[in-house]
Amino acid sequence: MVFSRMRLNSCFTVARPTGPACTSDGPTGFSYHEALHLPVAATGPALTTSPSKISSMPQSPTGRPTLEDVARLADVSLGSASRALSDSSLVKPKTLKRVMQAVEQLGYVRNGAARALASRRTFSVGAVYPTLHNPAFADSIHALQQTLWGFGYQLVVASHEYVEEREYEVVRSIVERGVDGLILVGVEHDHQVFDLVRQRKLPLVLTWTLEQPPYGHTVGFSNRQAAYDLTRAVLAKGHKDIAVICGSREHNERARQRVSGTSEAMAERGLTLREEWIIEQPLSVEGGKLAMQRILAMGQRPTAVMCNTDTLAIGALHECRVHGIAVPDQMSITGYDDIVLASLTVPPLATVHIPTAQIGTFSARRLVGLIENRDLGEPPALNHEVVIRESLGPAPSTLQPEMKRGKLSGSARTVADS
Amino acid sequence: MVFSRMRLNSCFTVARPTGPACTSDGPTGFSYHEALHLPVAATGPALTTSPSKISSMPQSPTGRPTLEDVARLADVSLGSASRALSDSSLVKPKTLKRVMQAVEQLGYVRNGAARALASRRTFSVGAVYPTLHNPAFADSIHALQQTLWGFGYQLVVASHEYVEEREYEVVRSIVERGVDGLILVGVEHDHQVFDLVRQRKLPLVLTWTLEQPPYGHTVGFSNRQAAYDLTRAVLAKGHKDIAVICGSREHNERARQRVSGTSEAMAERGLTLREEWIIEQPLSVEGGKLAMQRILAMGQRPTAVMCNTDTLAIGALHECRVHGIAVPDQMSITGYDDIVLASLTVPPLATVHIPTAQIGTFSARRLVGLIENRDLGEPPALNHEVVIRESLGPAPSTLQPEMKRGKLSGSARTVADS
DNA sequence: GTGAAAGCGCTAACAA
DNA sequence: TTGTTAGCGCTTTCAC
């Protein structure tokens, strides 16, 4: 077993709930290593070797010990007990010690609801994502959660599965349950969402975008620019007939911006992104397959298909293999996001690297900064990066016989899949 | 815009917070479609077209309207207002209507902390996963969250990143913050975790396992059996020299069971799983690469490598390609989990299909059943399924020249990637 | 079916 | 530094 049950130390750091490894940004108090290893009074005396004076303390009607029980056992006032646990520097070491001892003996665990009600702080933040079922978002959530934990915040997550009407319900539900701040994806949200959040003055961070929102702050990158840059790379390979597979563009400015980034780059070359070559599908592997099926059924086919996410691209790639279409010889495919698997497909997927983890990390920092009204530093510019891999090849018409296989202008590179 | 601001209906269902699409399991009350579309009073009168009598209602010190404000405006008692929102069947339709009107006018949003404190229910559950950075877990969390939402519960997630000592901190922190139930992965947890949860009588569901825990219930499948079955399939291909790539087995009974399932199946054939061919690595693509590097550097190589997760397998597969090792001709590779991408690798990955989404769904149902003390039906037996795909081929020694490429005894099949 | 009132367990102001 | 006390906003008896 990892913990010494005898160890006497605090779960508590300054005005901050249990658990968090307060990073260097945190106020003074117990260090990470000192803190957090509070054992719990076992169910029966027989089960514990703790110094048993668990005694006949009168406890609250719920059965669980309350701070009042702790104070009584420690023979200090309620206030002192509260202070000891919230900010140990507010009480004498001796008081602290007695309180901690009582906490340990009783197996006391704070009541977050009471804390929240009295202090109007929940130390949790909400994050509503389009879906958790997307590696890029999962990565970001992962980083978000880890960073928040470091600051002492819990993460409440939910998703609306791209059903726009659900977002408000979801956000409302989360706000109702109580969070100190909120993270959403994109700038485009029902006005009710903004109204609700603004009315409550809830700190808000919008991710995955740089657009100016009617309320809140953003942490992200330019979807349009990323798509533009990637498209330039595609155009450089001589492609003129380009199709796009994207998610629904309605209510999703990210999808729209990616498409417009592409059409802008094409326009600069005097090319037009044909509307019938913009195919909307659910952002899944299956969606990619279906879209590619439609493309392959077309009379005139594009020579390059740019997918709005790697997941779509993987589906598209797979469909090509099924139909015996050689990628990139007969058709080039690009993705977007650069998920870990993008570099492992066959052929490896050309894509745009999106700083998913950074978005999570910096949105957490930004949000905590807003909540605690302290400066955690401006989030740096988050950059995308075009990653050329073998799924993007020269357009068939320009193909020289001798460079039929695997000849690339840029070398295939691997990013962030370590 | 999707919502009619004028719409007058409830956000509230019986004793259950806003939002959830109460499924058929829910008690009576507003239907999903009736519910939840409560607009919020906009910041300034100019911003809203609401029937403005927003008036000079004295509001609580926080600035936000409270139930008391609602009651006053509706001209009913606090109690009635509370009842109207918690269980509309407890008040007269007329009362309800007036309350709802007041709610709408004020843009009232319930205070979850106060609710939780008074009712001792938070309508949220905690889930602590090893990591969110694993498609199998992400799938499961996704299903979990969706199902919980249907029941009116919020999901608080956190991960311990396979650092066993962190789990207790994480669990404690979540419990402190307040949840009505808890979901963990596996049966093996520090006794402090069990002590804490047991002491608070917190409903507990352990997933991804069938082992009997000291406290709580399980929803899962047999890791040992799944590994056993897959190994039988490998053995049937004539492999005798089998290596295993797994995560750390310490504190992880799932990893141990998978390994022992393999060694048992081998033992039945009089084969031994060599300890030096059991390679522990972090459960990532990178871990799979590193492990395969080690294997390829060995004097005598195994003919089949069984990976404990698809992610590891994908890394291993990739490493083989990098080193020019043909899969499955020179080496067979299997995974575990059957993530969406398993069927899309080249060659497609033989693996065991794990009912990840079902685990999420049923653990949610089980937990809610425990919390609300109602019978939501016993979770059905969750079954794994061996999925033979091309990465598993005959052992090189038994290889007939004419079946060198792609000859399989079972046809490659695709599961659950639609 | 409704109103009045007593907490839920804690924090934070204020005195001492 | 410590103790006292008044709520935080809601649910839930308990009478009526």
TrEMBL record, chains A, B:
Residues 65-119 form the HTH lacI-type domain. Keywords: DNA-binding, Transcription, Transcription regulation. PROSITE patterns: HTH_LACI_1, HTH_LACI_2. It comes from the Bacteria. It holds the Pfam family Peripla_BP_3. One of its GO terms (molecular function) is DNA-binding transcription factor activity. InterPro entries: HTH_LacI, LacI/GalR-like_sensor, Lambda_DNA-bd_dom_sf, Peripla_BP_I. This is Catabolite control protein A. It comes from Variovorax paradoxus.
